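Internal ticket #5521
Category: modeling
Description: The requester needs a full-assembly model to guide mutagenesis choices. All entity lines are attached below as received. Residue total reported by intake: 759.
Assigned to: D.W.
Attached entities:
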Amino acid sequence: MISTTEFASIARLDNGHKNREVDLAAVDEILDSYKPLAPHALIPILQDVQEHYGFLPEAALDRIGRALDISTTRIFGVATFYNQFRLHPLGKHVIRICRGTACHVKGSAALLDTLEMELNIKAGSTTKDGLFSIETVACIGACSIAPVAMVGDKFHGRLTVKDIPRLVKSLKREDAKGAAEKAVA
Amino acid sequence: MPTVDLTINGREITVEAGTTILQAARLAGFQIPTLCYLSGLSPTGACRVCVVEVEGARTLVPSCAFPVADGMVVRTHTARVRAARTAIVQLLLANHPQECLTCVRNGDCELQTLTRELNIREIPYQGERRLAPVDSSSPAIERDPEKCILCGRCVRVCQEIQNVGAISFTKRGFQSEVAPAYDRQLDITSCVNCGQCIIQCPTGALREHSSVRKVWEWLQDPNMHVVAQTAPAVRVGIGEMFGAAPGGIYTGQLVTALSNIGFDRVFDTNFAADLTIVEEATELVRRVKNNEPLPMITSCSPGWIKYCEHYYPDLIPHLSTCRSPHEMLGALIKSYYAEQYGIFPGNIAVVSIMPCTAKKFETERPELETNGFPSVDAVLTVREIARMIKTAGIDFLNLPPRDFDNPLGTSTGAADIFASTGGVMEAALRTAAFYLTGKELANVDFRDVRGLRGIKEATIKIGDMDVNVAVASGLANAKVLMDQIRKGESPYAFIEIMGCPGGCINGGGMPQGSNVETVRARMRAIYTIDQTKVYRRSHQNPAIRKLYEEYLGEPGSERAHHLLHTTYMARERS
C-alpha cells in the first residue's frame, strides 16, 4: 500500500534534486584542502565552492554535510543567512538596480517594479532561460546620474521606467546577433 | 565547589559558581518566564523574554545565559523588565495568527500562558505577517510555520539530542523560518518522526498529524470492528492530560474510557511486548549459536529504526528482525483473532494508542502488512486520545477501572518496563537467561540498565557466561554505540536503543510541557507496575504460551516469522 503522501514525495524528489548532475570533483578537492575537517571550516569551504561553481549546488551541500557530519539543512541555514551565498547560478546578464538613497528619491523603486514585471521574476532570482538575473545594490556610487542600473560592468544612468523594456530588448537583440554570428563562423 | 553570594529581589542567596541568574532565581523562589530556554542544552539567549535588571549593568541581561557573580544585585520583575518582556511578547503576537480558539494548543500553549501572565491586553504593533503554508506531508508530524516564534528549541533538540538536523533556521530577518533545506517537505527529509520537536514546541507550530477524525468515523460505522491497543507508557502519562500529577497509574481508567468511547475490544500492547521478548530472545540465542551478526540491536523504536536506515544502512544486519510490539499485535488481530472470532480482517480497524509519533509513519510501511491488510490502521498519540476522551464528555480520573479484553490482554511485568530506557534489555535478559541456562533467575532486577543516563553498560552473568550489553536512548547517544560497531570495536553482544531520550516515557506522543522530574515520575510508576505483577518474565505469560500452542508453534517458527518479523531498507540521508 503506497499512500498518497508517498506518491507526492516521489514526485517532489524528482524535481527537488535537479542539480544532482553537477560534477563534484571540485568539491572533493576543496574538502581535501581543509583536512583535518572540522565544522568551523564550513564558511570558507562554502566560499571556495561558490567561487568554483558560481553558486552553491544542492548536491555540493549534501557532500559537504556528509564530510563535516553536519546536516544539509543546517548548511542550507548558513547558506541562506549570509547574503554572499547564492543557491542558483546567475543569469548571463546580471542587472543590478541601485536602491541607494539618491536613486530611491529619483524613483528606483518603480524601475525595479517594471524590470521585475518585464522579466517576470523577483529581485534576487534568475529567468528560467538563464539569460537574466536581477539584483539590488544598496548604493552603486554613481549618485550623480541617479537612478542607476548596471548591466554587467556597464552603467545606465538617468533611467526612466520607459527605458526598461528597451534595455531588455537590446540585450536580447545582442544575444540573437551573437548567436547568428557564431552560427556563420 | 566554590560558591557565590548574590541578592535577588532583596533576598540574599548562596549558589554554586557557574549557576545562571535564571537557575539562581528559581532556587530563591522567583519564576522568570522563558521561551527559548531548554534545560540541559546550551542557552542561546535568543528570545529575551527572561531579561532581568542587574545593578551596574548598562542593559537588561538574559538571565538564562548570564552567570551569577559575587555581590550581584538582581531584580527580576521591575517596571523596566516588565515593559521589555511585554514589548517582546507583543511583537511576537503581532506576527502570530490570532486563531487561538481553534488551535490544537489552545489551553496549553506557552505563548498564551506568557501573554496571560504578563497581563497583555492589546497588540499595539501592526504590520505585515509572515505567511507560510502548513506542511502536512509527513504522516507523523505537521509543521505550521506561521505559528512558529523562532525560539529554536526544536532545532536544538533535533540537532543536539537526536543528531538528525532535519530542520534548522533558514533564511534571515523577516523571512526566517525553521524548516528543512530547500523548503523540502518533511516527508522527504531524514526526519525520523521521533516528535521530540513537538514535545519542545511552545506553540502549535509543530504537532502530530492527527488521525482523530478517521478514528471517530470508524467508531460510528456499524460495519467496522474497532480494536484499540495501548502501549505501556500511555498508562503512566495520560493522567497528566487530565490534570493529575505525573507518575499516576491509570491503566484501568484508560481501558474503561476506550470502551466507553465505543471501541469494540481493548487489547494490551504489553501482550505483544512479552511476545517480542520471546521472539527477540530466541533470535539472540540463534545469532550467538550460528555466528550471525552481533551485537544484535533492538527494533521496538520506529524513530531509531528510521535513523538507522538513513545513517547506518551498512549496519542493518545488526537490527533484530522483530516488528515493534504494536505491529506484532496488529498482525495477530488481523490473523489469529480474526480467524478465531470469524471476523473479516478488512472490517477490523486496529487503532494503536502510543506515546509515539514515529509509529504513525511506521504503520504506513508496506512491509508490515498482514495478508494484504495493514496490521495497524491508525496510531493516536496520548494527546490525541485524551482529546477524544474529553470530546466524549468522560470524567477520566474518576472512572471505575476495567481489565483489558482477552485473548490479547494479559501481560507480565517484563512488558511494562518496555516503556523506559533499559526496560527492553532487562526484559530480554530475564528470558534469555532462562533460554540459555534452562534455569529461572532468582533475581530479575537488573539495576545497572535502569535510570535516565544516555548510555548505560553492564556485564551480566548468565550461567558461566559474561554477557556485555549496552543501552542508549536519544539518537546522539545511539550514534556513539553505532560508530563503535562500524569501527569493529563494539564489545557488546546485545544493545537496546530507544529513539527518545529516556525511552517511550518521554516519547514524542506523550503530554507536552514535561521535564526531567516528570519523566522520572513516569519511570518510577513503570517499575512499580512491574513489581506488582504476578508474572515478571515474558516467557511465563500464560496467554503467550497458549498463543504458541494454538497458533504460532515454536518461537521463531515460520508462521512467527511471517507475522512477527520484518525487513528494513537503506534510505538516503539529507
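Resolution: model delivered.
Comment from assignee: The CA atoms of residues 7 and 72 of chain A lie 23 Å apart.
Ticket closed.
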